[in-house]
Amino acid sequence: MIKVDKVSRNYIAGESVVKALKKVSLEVGDGEFMSIAGPSGSGKTTLLNLIGCIDSLDEGEILINGQQVTKMNKKEKTEFRRNNLGFIFQTYNLIPVLSAYENVAFVLSILNVPEQEIRERTYAVLKEVGLEGMENRRPSRLSGGQQQRIAIARALVKNPQIILADEPTANLDSKTGEEILKLMKKMNEKYHTTFIFSTHDQMVMDYASRLVLLHDGNIVSDERR
Amino acid sequence: MKFIITLAFKNLSRYKRRTSITAVAIAVGLMMYLLVDSILIGAENESMRNLRWYETASARIHAPSYWEDRMLFPMESSIENPDAVLALLDENGWKATARTVFTADMILYSEDFGEDGNMNVLVTAIDPETDNDVFHFSDTLIDGRFLEKGDENGILIGSWFAEDINAKVGYWITLVARGNGGFYEAMDMQIVGILNCPNPNVNRTLLMMDKDTAGYYLGMNQAVTEIDVLLPEHEDIDVEMAKIQAKIEASHLDLEVHSWKELAKDYLAIAEAKRGGTSMILFLVFIIAAVGISNTMLMAMYERTRELGMMRAMGMSDNNIRLAFLIEAGGIGFIGAVFGIVLGLLANLYMVNVGIDFGWMMRDLDMGYRIQSVFRGAWSMSSFIEAFVAGIGLSMIVAWIPISRALKMDIPSCLRHQ
After folding, report:
1. Closest by Cβ to A87, choosing from B14, B306, B313
2. If DSSP codes are grouped into helix, strand and coil, which group holds residue B173?
3. Is this complex scored with an ipTM above 0.85?
């Protein structure tokens, strides 16, 4: 369970202060498949970053499974992310010199999982996202959809409680985007992992079981389907 | 850890050209260092050997009052009973020879030299039978003959000195010198041999005659100004000196022993300063390598900022990220160091066996080195180890700054980076 309580985040842009989030409150239950939508500059990525413990807020607090993550220091946040959160990025952010296998396995390496278990879990998750037989290919030899599948595998492989996806279909054509969404939905249902997206994409909004709309740093609608 | 090492080494191959250029810069820098270091060590070793072989011997025994006025070559401060000292040294297994060094006015005649003239010279009177036990002049004869015991008119001259005054074997000169007691004596001498001494300082000024002849003309009455001693190369000079001094004192001889290090204090000071020059070269090499590595790592960090943000978001600790980049930088340093060592070995092989002939420069320029022409290198294992470690260590040190800067960026900024 994620609880966002009256969170504000301001950015300094030159001499002016941009209020990216204005006392936003939100609760996300376990296993939700939620989309945060809104126009550019509405604060959706900021909200996602704050829940993902990669940004710091100016006001309010965020609790994840009862832990007050906003009070954690840098080292504690790093450890929290390592153990509990998965990320999927718009531009995949894969390491180009590593193979598909290595890109996924590294997440388990930093968790000090034994070598044999890394191998088993990595092959299993790559099979699950449809990349069986492509384990040794480098990202440059894979399509955008396949690269995003690696990114999903990388987020899933450590069985995190929450996966945060920042515009995961923005760089994909609609057909591939839909495949990716179906895959994520499948994983959400299978592992009961909480998925939170930020998006502009109507298709992603349609797939979400809950849609939160942001505008100028405020939640203007919160719709469960 | 395995992942960190894998990532670091795979990243090395990511920008092959940039890695290669930086590694080459390090390699060339290290080779230059090794080359210059080798030449300087070789020049220093050879200079010190030529000092001992042709100038100072291993040690020198003087009368106590001689040392203070040694620049004036005082004849009156001489060793009265050199035979007793030589016998004492011989009894204890030290090879030694007696010499008398004096200043003179050398008169040249137009019959031989084309025009009349004169100049101040330094003359070394030697014992031809024992001098070569301590010094190495007999190997340097290039024309004429060496001195013989009791050679009444014969004198040897250094080849550069001979060139300067256009002297040839058979030419006559007159030496006018102040004898022991204050009178002036003229000695008519004939050049009987020309020596090409590898020590340029000696070769420029060398005039050598028989000790007994000089003693007779100068009223030395068997006395000499110095006794030069040969000590084994491997022996500790200070320990041997102390032994000689103890033996002399035990025999109630009022004499002083000075090591070649004291005699060549000026040269050793210059050599020390030149060693400082080597450090400067090493520093320049470090700058070259530092700029190359720093630039490579800056570019790497800049191009991989988003990747860095991803790794940090995934929970990879800053220390592990830093370690991965440091290993990568160390890898570039390692490649550069290996090539630098190989290039250094090849360059040094040439320098040790062939060397570079600086004769054209050394003929007219006194650089302090006691080398006449060919500068040869010397092997120094410690320099190779230093260069290797420095190549790797420096690469990692200079990479630290750009890595730390990149890690200071917040994660969202890293992820937004284009």
Report:
1. B313
2. strand
3. yes
